[in-house]
Structures are given as structure tokens and as C-alpha cells.
């Protein structure tokens, strides 16, 4: 019975989305019943299910950990240039770029593909870049209990390209440094490895 109720609620919610898209099309001066727009509500619905799929995934579930066999694991693990696309929660316009994610393990480590997957989980939501940066390090700290975690995101925001100040050649860099990455030496090593400097750190 519960599954049936869940299905009915989901179908009702999907229909609400379709009707909302038609309302928006009418608001901007379009005719939602013209041929080229007849399937637009369904297309928008499917795109939303992809763009915002991160809400259905618990970040910790993608960080399958295992203990390293060595007696001491104390070196930085870094994955650079992880591409992502996300949607700004202020205007629901895209922002996109790359994330650099690192951690220094205490004992537990994850496969490198899991770092990219973690970025994807948080990117597939309505976001602000600053929060996404800290969510990534926070999830690593909670799940792996590492000595430290770091994330730098460099992104371009279409809300700055298409509206407002219309600055076409600017990007935004945010960083979050936790644990041992707040140590000057570890931080310097991390920034040297990703070849960025002058970064404003979000504590």
C-alpha cells in the first residue's frame, strides 16, 4: 500500500511540474500549446530528474571505505580537475567548472572514482558554490575521519554572463580546508599541486 501511495504522490508531483512549466511559458509570452512546445513540460521534467538527482543520494553512501594494509598512511591523496555542472539556487542558472579534492587519511581510504562521485552528488542539487565546497570537505571528514580534507572549486556562473553585471570572462574560486590542511606547510603543498594561489579560504 505504501508503494502505491508513493507512486501516486510522485505522479501527482510530476503533473504539478508540467503545469508549472506551462504557466511559466504563458508568463513569458509563449503559447504552451503550439507544436514546438507541446513536449517541453515532459522534457523539463526529465531534465530536472537528472539535474537534481543528487537529492536522492546520501553523500556518505558513495564513499565506500577500506583500511589500507600499510602500517602508516600519511600522504596526501589528491584528485584534480574533476569537472562538474550545477545549478545556482538564486536564479536556477548553471554554473560549471572543476573541483580539486584532497585528503590525508588516518587509516581509511576510498577509490579515486569516489571523490569524483562525491562532487557529482553535491553538484546535482540547487547550490551555491561556497556551500558546495564546504559540503565536500565536511562529508569527507565525517565519513573517513581523516587527518584533514581540502576542496578548491573554480567555476564560471552563467548568472554573471547573461544577466546583471554581464562579466563574461570572470570565474569564482572557493576553498575549504579542514584539519591538517590548515597547517601552513600542508596547505602550501596542496596549493602547489593544484597550481593555484591567492585563494580565499572558507572556514
Write the layout of secondary structure elements.
Blueprint: H1 2-27, H2 40-51, E1 66-67, E2 77-88, E3 94-104, E4 108-109, H3 112-123, E5 126-127, H4 129-144, E6 148-157, H5 158-162, E7 172-179, H6 184-194
Parallel strand pairs: 2-5
Antiparallel strand pairs: 1-4, 2-3, 3-6, 6-7
Helix pairs in contact: 1-2
InterPro entries: GTP-CH-I_C/QueF, GTP-CH-I_N, GTP_CycHdrlase_I, GTP_CycHdrlase_I_CS, GTP_CycHdrlase_I_dom
GO cellular component, one term: cytoplasm
Protein name: GTP cyclohydrolase 1
Protein architecture, described:
It is a single chain. The protein has helices spanning 2-27, 40-51, 112-123, 129-144, 158-162, 184-194, and strands at 66-67, 77-88, 94-104, 108-109, 126-127, 148-157, 172-179. α1 packs across α2. The strands form 2 sheets. The chain has a 5-stranded mixed β-sheet with strand order 5-2-3-6-7, sandwiched between helices. With 203 residues, the protein is α+β, with helices and mostly antiparallel strands. The chain has 6 helices and 7 strands. The chain folds into 2 domains: 2-51, GTP cyclohydrolase I, N-terminal domain (GTP Cyclohydrolase I, Chain A, domain 1, Orthogonal Bundle); 57-194, GTP cyclohydrolase I, C-terminal domain/NADPH-dependent 7-cyano-7-deazaguanine reductase, N-terminal domain (GTP Cyclohydrolase I, domain 2, 2-Layer Sandwich), CATH 3.30.1130.
Amino acid at each position: 500500500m505504501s508503494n502505491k501511495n508513493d507512486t501516486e504522490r510522485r505522479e501527482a508531483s510530476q503533473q504539478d511540474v508540467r503545469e508549472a512549466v506551462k504557466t511559466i511559458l504563458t508568463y513569458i509570452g509563449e503559447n504552451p500549446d503550439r507544436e514546438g512546445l507541446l513536449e517541453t513540460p515532459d522534457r523539463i521534467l526529465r531534465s530536472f530528474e537528472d539535474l537534481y538527482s543528487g537529492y536522492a543520494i546520501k553523500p556518505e553512501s558513495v564513499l565506500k571505505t577500506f583500511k589500507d594494509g600499510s602500517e602508516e598512511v600519511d600522504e596526501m591523496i589528491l584528485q584534480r580537475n574533476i569537472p562538474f555542472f550545477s545549478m545556482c539556487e538564486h536564479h536556477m542558472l548553471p554554473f560549471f567548472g572543476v573541483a580539486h579534492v584532497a585528503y590525508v587519511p588516518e587509516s581509511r581510504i576510498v577509490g579515486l572514482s569516489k571523490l569524483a562521485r562525491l562532487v557529482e552528488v553535491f553538484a546535482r542539487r540547487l547550490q551555491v558554490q561556497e556551500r558546495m565546497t564546504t559540503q565536500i570537505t565536511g562529508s569527507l571528514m565525517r565519513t573517513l575521519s581523516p587527518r584533514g580534507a581540502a576542496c578548491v572549486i573554480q567555476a564560471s556562473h552563467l548568472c554573471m554572463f547573461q544577466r546583471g553585471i554581464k562579466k563574461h570572462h570572470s570565474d569564482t574560486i572557493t576553498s575549504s580546508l579542514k584539519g591538517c590542511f590548515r597547517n601552513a606547510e600542508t596547505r602550501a603543498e596542496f596549493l602547489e599541486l593544484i597550481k593555484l594561489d591567492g585563494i580565499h579560504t572558507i572556514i
